[in-house]
Structure formats: structure tokens, C-alpha cells
Write a structure and sequence with these properties.
CATH architecture of the largest domain: 3-Layer(aba) Sandwich
CATH topology of the largest domain: Rossmann fold
Largest sheet: 8 strands, mixed
Strand order of the largest sheet: 3-2-1-4-5-6-14-15
CATH superfamily of the largest domain: NAD(P)-binding Rossmann-like Domain
Length: about 375
């Protein structure tokens, strides 16, 4: 199979879908790998490094899409890429369809076979989402701490305080991978952390591994409203696999929050768990609603592209190799890759996406 790795064109996106080690593995399995010139430079990977492991370099995205049977990316295709996608072509990347009707419609119309990193389930977890969730969770505290500085429009609070001065109050909505990593970072900096989740078993587990300055609370609308009253930094870290994120903080709730407090909504690429959330970019990452600063960058890990690229491809590489070996039939023949199949040959094949838009759901096996 011919596998294409185009350069990412999303604003300030410097990650790349494959690194030399992954290319070497694919070439060793008998596949041809095309990499667009300079695709890896943002992550510190040179064209020469790809050539050394057997990749073929091509000049443009049009050549990559035009020649490849399978495309391996990081972020969802953008409108400029829609015309390049061919009927029957395999796409393996992050899609987050449930929050993007235009993208969903475009992929259905294209006739391509879209396998999404974020919905692949293996042994009860989401292994291709985990590395970027780890990065985003840790980054959420970093960027939140910066946004709290006065000259950025925040309350002028040091996250960990100093002796004699209380630390910042950090509220984290969701105790999954993002929330856990955010809590570790915030606690390590000395903040007073409140982590909320609806899963009692998860809370019991976290109570054994979190430091003493992390308080675990069962999440409910009342508890959330009580906690954000005192919050300096709120981190939205809720994920519903394959579906739109639930709205946990409403517009009217912002009026109860402190002037200059900060919200970082990591769930923005799934629609956000804050009603006032809207996607932003690294070039213009924040905006203010009712005195509360919002940081809603949809590709947060893109700010640390080397760490993010290698963390991501460590996870995606084996699955990309398996998908390339099986083709679209993997959606029916492999139960794990079947969970990643969101759009196949013009049909919506993921229940969460279908429910988000009122579409007809088709089981992958029935389409193939």
C-alpha cells in the first residue's frame, strides 16, 4: 500500500503524522511511504531523516493525496484539503466528528474511509487519545498559570502561592487522563486542587494516588456551581468517547465566578464542556466573557510538537501498520480498528457521531 504523510496546515500545528521509526517499520512491512517536503521540520525531523529510512519525498500535498492509498495525519482535514481526498482512500487521524458537522458532511460526500484516533478502543481504554490527553492535561495548568498573571488579564495570582499567602484554587472537571495529569501538575506547583468526576470507582482510585492537596468530589450541577465560586482556574477535562462533550458550565454561571479567573477548556475539540467555549488558536488563544478569561486552543499539544509527535506516533504506529495491511476491511475484520471506523464509503459508522447529528448509523460490517 502507498501511505502518504502530508504536512499539517492547521494554524500553528507543527506535529507530523509519522516519524522516521514509524516509516522504517512501514517500509519494512512492504509499504511505500510518501512524505511531503518539510512535513516534519516543526517537530525537529528533517527530510534527510525520512529519506534515510526509505521514505520518498514529494513536493506538495496534492501529490501525497493523489498517489496515496492511505493518509496518516495528526489533525482533521481542513476545507482546503477536502478536494484532494479520493473515494475509497483511507484516512487515519484525529477527526472529532461529533463537534464538526461540516467536516462530517465533507467526509461522507468524499466516499473516503475515515478511521479516527480518538475513538479507537483497546482493552477498555483509548490508547491513541491518551498521549495527547497527557500532554494537554499538563499544558492546561501551564497555560492557566500564565493566564492568571495580571499582564495577561488574570487575577494576578501565583498558582502555588508563597508562605503566608494562600495558593490558587484550581477546579478540574473530569478525572480521566486529562484531569489526572492536570491535577498532578497543579498539585505539584502547590495549588489547592478540587477534582470532580461522576465515577465513584475512579474517585476511589485517585484518592490513593493523588497528593494531599487534591480534594476529590463527586460531580453534579450543584457541586460544580459551588466550586467555581471560589475557583481561580477551571480546567474542563470531560470526554464522552466519540460524542460531543457535555456542557457543564453555563453562561449564567460565569457571573458567579471571580473577576479575572481563567477557564481552560481542553474538551474544545469535542465541542467544549463550557457553554461559552469556542475554538481559538495559539496565535490568538484567549478571549474574555463576563470577566472570565477563556483559553480554548483546539490543538494545545501543537505548541510542544516534538514531545507531542513522538508521544503520538509511539501509540499510532502499530495501528497504522495493521490498518495498512488490512485496508478498509479492517473495520469489519478487526474489532479494535472497527471502533475507529467513523465514516465508511459515504455512511456514518460510529454511533456517537450519528447521534450528534441525527444521522442514520450503519454498522461497519454492514457497509463493507
Amino acid at each position: 500500500m502507498i501511505i502518504g504523510v502530508p504536512k499539517e496546515i492547521k494554524a500553528q500545528e507543527n506535529r507530523v503524522g509519522a516519524v522516521p521509526a514509524m516509516v522504517l517499520d512501514l517500509v519494512g512491512a512492504g509499504h511505500t511511504v510518501l512524505v511531503q517536503n518539510t512535513a516534519g521540520l516543526g517537530a525537529g525531523v528533517t527530510d534527510e531523516a525520512y529519506v534515510k529510512v526509505g521514505a520518498k519525498m514529494v513536493a506538495s500535498a496534492a501529490e501525497v493525496y493523489g498517489q496515496a492509498d492511505m493518509i496518516v495525519k495528526v489533525k482533521e482535514p481542513l476545507p482546503a484539503e477536502y478536494p484532494l481526498i479520493k473515494k475509497g482512500q483511507l484516512l487515519f487521524t484525529y477527526f472529532h466528528f461529533a463537534a464538526a458537522r461540516e467536516l462530517t458532511d465533507a467526509m461522507l460526500k468524499s466516499g473516503a474511509n475515515c478511521f479516527a484516533y480518538e475513538t479507537l478502543i483497546h482493552r477498555g481504554s483509548l490508547p491513541l487519545l491518551t498521549p495527547m490527553s497527557e500532554v494537554a492535561g499538563r499544558m492546561s495548568v501551564q497555560v492557566g498559570a500564565v493566564c492568571l498573571e495580571k499582564h495577561y488579564g488574570g487575577r494576578g495570582i501565583l498558582l502555588g502561592g508563597v508562605p503566608g499567602v494562600e495558593p490558587a484554587n484550581v477546579v478540574i472537571l473530569g478525572g480521566g487522563v486529562v484531569g489526572t495529569n492536570a491535577a498532578k501538575m497543579a498539585a505539584g506547583l502547590g495549588a489547592d486542587v478540587r477534582l470532580l468526576d461522576i465515577d465513584l470507582d475512579r474517585l476511589r482510585y485517585l484518592s490513593d494516588v493523588m497528593p494531599a492537596n487534591v480534594t476529590l468530589l463527586h460531580s453534579s450541577p450543584i457541586t460544580i456551581r459551588e466550586q467555581i465560586l471560589h475557583a481561580d482556574l477551571v480546567i474542563g477535562a470531560v470526554l464522552v468517547q466519540g460524542a460531543r462533550a457535555p456542557r457543564l458550565i453555563r453562561r449564567e454561571d460565569l457571573k458567579t465566578m471571580k473577576e479575572g479567573s481563567v477557564i481552560v477548556d481542553v474538551a474544545v475539540d469535542q465541542g467544549g464542556c463550557i457553554e461559552t467555549c469556542k475554538p481559538t488558536t495559539h496565535a490568538d488563544p484567549t478571549y474574555v466573557v463576563d470577566g472570565v478569561m477563556h483559553y480554548c486552543v483546539a490543538n494545545m499539544p501543537g505548541a510542544v510538537p516534538r514531545t507531542s509527535t513522538f508521544g503520538l506516533t509511539n501509540a499510532t504506529g502499530p495501528w497504522a501498520k495493521k490498518l495498512a495491511g488490512m485496508g478498509a476491511a479492517a473495520a469489519a475484520k478487526d474489532p479494535v480498528l472497527g471502533t475507529a471506523a467513523n465514516v465508511l464509503a459515504g455512511h456514518c459508522t460510529h454511533q456517537g457521531v450519528a447521534e450528534a447529528f441525527g444521522m442514520t448509523y450503519r454498522a461497519p460490517a454492514s457497509v463493507l
